Structures are given as C-alpha cells and as structure tokens.
C-alpha cells in the first residue's frame, strides 16, 4: 500500500477531503522527522515507537572488487512495533 492509497482509504472512512487527509499525513511525517532529527522518540501508544539508534563504525567489503572499506559510524531511524500492532498482525 502506498501513501496515495492510504489517503484515499482515510478519506472514504472519515468523510474528509483527500486534500485535507494528505495535509494531515504530511504534517505527521514532518513532525516525526523533525523529532528524530532532534534525537527525540515519538510514541504512538499501541502502535509503536519511532527512535534513532547509533551504529558504530565497522569494516565492510566492496562487492565488486572485494576490497575492504571502512564504514563510518552513523545515526539511523528505527521503529519498534507496539503490542496492539503486533497482536493485530498475528
């Protein structure tokens, strides 16, 4: 399912216009992104938690040449599913 399909489904279920639903979804995405940039956690109780995790530097291999390369440390986004979401998917 892509974003447009989600917008369409929510629009039908709520009676809101597709334009309004799109604005809300974009707003949520922007807020989550901004919070993660600030290293904050975003929690939707029952659904899950968005957070950042630190990856340490490590060695890797170039798949074309086999040459060993250094992969620098980085911060990556992560999602941890909540209990209600886990139960719904079972």
UniProtKB/TrEMBL annotation:
GO MF annotations in UniProt: DNA binding; identical protein binding; structural constituent of chromatin
UniProt xrefs under SUPFAM superfamilies: IHF-like DNA-binding proteins
Annotated GO CC locations: cytosol; DnaA-HU complex; HU-DNA complex
Pfam family, one: Bac_DNA_binding
UniProt KW keywords: DNA condensation, DNA-binding
PROSITE patterns the record matches: HISTONE_LIKE
Region annotation Disordered: where it falls in the sequence: 52-90
GO biological process, one term: DNA replication initiation
The UniProt record lists the keyword DNA-binding: yes
Family stated for the protein in its record: Belongs to the bacterial histone-like protein family.
Protein name as annotated: DNA-binding protein HU
Organism annotation: Pullulanibacillus camelliae
Lineage: Bacteria, Bacillati, Bacillota, Bacilli, Bacillales
């Amino acid at each position: 399912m892509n974003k447009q399909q989600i917008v369409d489904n929510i629009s039908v279920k709520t009676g809101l216009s597709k334009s309004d639903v799109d604005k809300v979804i974009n707003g949520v995405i922007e807020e989550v992104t901004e919070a993660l940039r600030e290293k904050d956690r975003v929690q939707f109780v029952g659904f899950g938690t968005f957070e950042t995790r630190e990856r340490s530097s490590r060695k890797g291999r170039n798949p074309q040449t086999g040459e060993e390369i250094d992969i620098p440390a980085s911060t990556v986004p992560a999602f941890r599913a909540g209990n209600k979401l886990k139960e719904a998917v079972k």
